[in-house]
Structure formats: C-alpha cells, structure tokens
Design a protein that fits this description.
By secondary structure, the protein is an all-alpha fold. The protein is built from four helices and no strands. It has one domain.
C-alpha cells in the first residue's frame, strides 16, 4: 500500500472522527446532567423520611420526575455511546478497505447512517430531558410577584 492511499484514507476518516469528538462532548454534557439529577435525588431521599403532608407529596413528586429524568438520560447516554462505537467501526471499515482492497463502501455508508441515527436519538432524548427538567422546576407565580397583566408589583421596596 502506498503513502498516497494511506493519506487518502486518513482524509476520509477525518469527518467521522469529528463526529466522534462531537459525540464525546455531548456525552460529557449529558453525564453532567445525570450527576446533578443523582445528587438532587440523594438530597430528596434523605428528606423523604422526615417530611409529612404537602411537603412529603412534593418530595415524592420530585423524586418521580428525577427517576424519569435519570431513565431518559440513561437512554440518551446509551444512544450516544452506540453512536461512538459505530463511528469507530466506520473508521475501521475505511482502513480495512484501504489496506485489503475490499469494497466496503456500502458497509461504511450504513455505518455512517446508523451513527447519525443514534446521535439523533441521543439528541432528541436530551431535549426531552431538558424540557422535563424545566417543567419540573416551574417557579410559582406568587414568587414572581407579577400582577394579572404580567407586570412586576411594587411592594414598597426601592
């Protein structure tokens, strides 16, 4: 195999490697979100046994949402890791084709399509989790001190 073919194969593998880097960055963000949900769940679980009435119901509701968020995040991580694995297989296919001369173009195309699909699934799940988190952390209107028109009320403060 000549140096030109190797250089061409390296050039072909650059795009999938960028996809791999982006997937790694996404995994970093998603893992950070998972850590925050787990930390919050631990705090809520400690408070669960000490709470009663409305406060207990609020904690249970938040724990249910946190459990759902952890499941969604876990599936998003699974999809992103799957994407990374398929991208690695894609790069291996490209080099195998270059070194052996076998025509693996169809397999490489399928691998790229599957990687993109897995990345899409991961991003959609990430979006769902973020939307769920925003809904769970809804600020009560009375704390915003707004009137019916949405204007800020003055409470004698300057």
């Amino acid at each position: 195999m000549d140096a030109g073919a190797i250089a061409q194969t390296i050039q072909l593998s650059v795009t999938p490697v960028f996809l791999l880097v982006a997937t790694g960055s996404l995994l970093n963000v998603i893992a950070g979100r998972l850590a925050r949900v787990v930390d919050r769940s631990r705090i809520l679980m400690e408070r669960w046994s000490e709470s009663q009435g409305v406060e207990h119901e609020r904690i249970v509701a938040e724990l249910r949402i946190a459990d759902r968020r952890m499941g969604i995040i876990n599936n998003s991580i699974l999809s992103a890791v799957g994407c990374g694995i398929v991208v690695c297989v894609l790069v291996a296919l490209l080099f195998t084709q270059a070194f052996t001369g076998m025509n693996l173009g169809v397999a490489a195309s399928w691998a790229f399509a599957v990687a993109m699909l897995l990345l899409l699934v991961s991003l959609i799940l990430f979006l769902i989790e973020v939307r769920l988190a925003v809904r769970a952390i809804h600020v009560p209107m009375e704390l915003l001190e707004l009137d019916e028109m949405g204007w800020k009320r003055r409470r004698g403060r300057r």
